[in-house]
Amino acid sequence: MSADTLAAPRTPHTTPRKRGANLEKWGWIYMRASGVLLVVLIFGHLFVNLMLGDGIHGIDFAFVAGKFASPFWQWWDVLMLWLAFIHGANGMRTIVNDYVTGATARRVLVWALWLSAGLMIVLGTLVVFTFDPCLGIENSTTEWLIEKCAA
């Protein structure tokens, strides 16, 4: 068989299979699982922020401070952040692998994707877990925030 013809669909694979983890398979599984979980997390986030309370008009510094005072919402937002960045970086990695023909350019772009996603995950996680609502107290008109920070 020449290099420019395709084998019949039922022809056994003759090249030896590589040993080790099949990262493409696990990336594919991750995309499906994280996609389903992200739908739940994002719509839960949107429902709480936009439908409950005063809707979009109720979102201000005090609203965010109140949400980030709860470990439940901190972990909700961090999980959404982590899953979204890894999901997006993995999707971009797939696009780079599909369309970038040079091995060096592909390697550089994939490394840049993972480094930028990792940096954003670290920075976002730090923002969520080190958020201090009392830093912006001088601009707040919300009574509970002023009382909380005065203590």
TrEMBL record:
Please give the InterPro entries that the UniProt record associates with this protein: SQR/QFR_C/D, SuccDH_FuR_B_TM-su
Q: Which residues cross the membrane?
A: 29-52, 72-96, 108-131
What's a Pfam family this protein contains? Sdh_cyt
Where in or outside the cell it occurs: the entry states: Membrane
Task: Tell me the CDD domains matching this sequence.
Answer: SQR_TypeA_SdhD_like
Entry keyword set:
Heme, Iron, Membrane, Metal-binding, Transmembrane, Transmembrane helix
Gene3D superfamilies annotated for this entry? Fumarate reductase/succinate dehydrogenase, transmembrane subunit
Q: What is its main location?
A: membrane
Q: Is the keyword Metal-binding assigned to this protein?
A: yes
Q: What is this protein called?
A: Succinate dehydrogenase hydrophobic membrane anchor subunit
Q: Species name for this entry?
A: Microbacterium pullorum
